[in-house]
């Protein structure tokens, strides 16, 4: 099986230095809002890449839930990604918005959000999602689906006040120090603009060859 014939010419958009704001987060918000406005599903999906201490990379999709001075998602702290982050807090996020032929990659250090912050999000979720988060020992092997379903049903039969946020479930925030914005263009002449954080927290802006 080969895919040599699958060829897409990206056109119609450009990313030029003259239109690049001084702060990458401003450009990110513009692109993100344009993606969200399409109302297509999972526009906040991003690939989170981590690496274990012994150098093995792992990528998986998570959902961007908040954007402040960093990029926030929620997960299980004891999951495989949680173990990677604990041992090595360097990580990267990758977004791909097909409708605009745009990719954004960013890189930085990951921290846990404050417990009250995780509480606020956890208790804003529907009961079913709360029970699901409690029921799942994410990334651990289980004997069968039935075991998971039984645990879930048992939780749902409890009082709402008993569905507390587990201490090992909460938010992570990646504080970016590097961004790359990729705008697909015709004939593989794509635009690639990077932002690199300087020691004074200003951003160097430059162009990469596609
Ligand atoms: C569209 C989509 C959204 C997802 N969102 C999340 C999320 O926000 N948090 C999360 O922990 N896992 C999410 N997952 C599941 C992860 O991709 C992954 O299976 C899980 O986090 C376990 O990864 P790990 O074993 O590497 O820790 C999502 C998967 C998909 C396909």
Summarize the structure.
This protein is an alpha+beta fold.
What value does the Rg take, in angstroms?
20 Å
Distance between the termini: 27 Å
What fold name goes in the CATH topology slot of the largest domain?
Pnp Oxidase, Chain A
CATH class of the largest domain: Mainly Beta
User: What is the number of helical segments per DSSP (H or I, 4+ residues)?
Assistant: 5
| Amount of beta strand | 25-35%
CATH architecture of the largest domain: Roll
- What can be said about the biggest beta sheet? 9 strands, antiparallel
Q: Which class best fits the helix and strand makeup?
A: alpha+beta
**Overall pLDDT:** 95
SSE string, helices as H and strands as E: HEEEEHEEHHHEEE
Description:
The protein folds into two domains: 17-123 and 168-207, Electron Transport, Fmn-binding Protein, Chain A (Pnp Oxidase, Chain A, Roll), CATH 2.30.110.10; 126-164, no CATH class. It contains five helices and nine strands, in the order H-E-E-E-E-H-E-E-H-H-H-E-E-E. It has helices at 24-37, 80-87, 115-122, 127-135, 145-156; strands spanning 45-51, 57-63, 66-67, 71-76, 90-97, 102-112, 169-183, 191-197, 203-207. Strands 1, 2, 3, 4, 5, 6, 7, 8 and 9 form a nine-stranded antiparallel β-sheet that branches. A hairpin with a 5-residue loop joins strand 1 (45-51) and strand 2. The relative contact order is 0.19.
């Amino acid at each position: 099986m080969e895919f040599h014939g699958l060829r897409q010419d990206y056109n119609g958009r450009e990313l030029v230095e003259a239109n690049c704001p001084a702060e990458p987060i401003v450009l990110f918000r513009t692109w993100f809002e344009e993606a969200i406005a399409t109302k297509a599903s999972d526009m906040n999906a991003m690939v989170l890449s981590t690496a274990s201490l012994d150098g093995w990379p792992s990528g998986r999709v998570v959902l961007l839930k908040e954007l402040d001075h960093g990029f926030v998602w929620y997960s299980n702290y004891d999951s495989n990604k949680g173990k990677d982050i604990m041992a090595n807090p360097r990580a990267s996020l990758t977004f791909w918005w097909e409708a605009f032929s745009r990719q954004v990659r960013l890189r930085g250090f990951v921290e846990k959000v404050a417990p009250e912050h995780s509480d606020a999000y956890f208790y804003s979720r529907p009961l079913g999602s709360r029970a699901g988060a409690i029921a799942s020992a994410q990334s651990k092997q289980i004997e069968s689906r039935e075991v998971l379903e039984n645990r879930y049903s048992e939780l749902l039969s409890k009082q709402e006040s008993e569905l507390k946020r587990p201490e090992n479930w909460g938010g992570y925030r990646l504080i970016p120090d590097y961004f790359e914005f990729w705008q697909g263009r015709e004939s593989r002449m794509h635009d690639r603009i990077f932002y690199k954080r300087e020691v004074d927290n200003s951003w160097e802006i430059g162009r990469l060859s596609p």
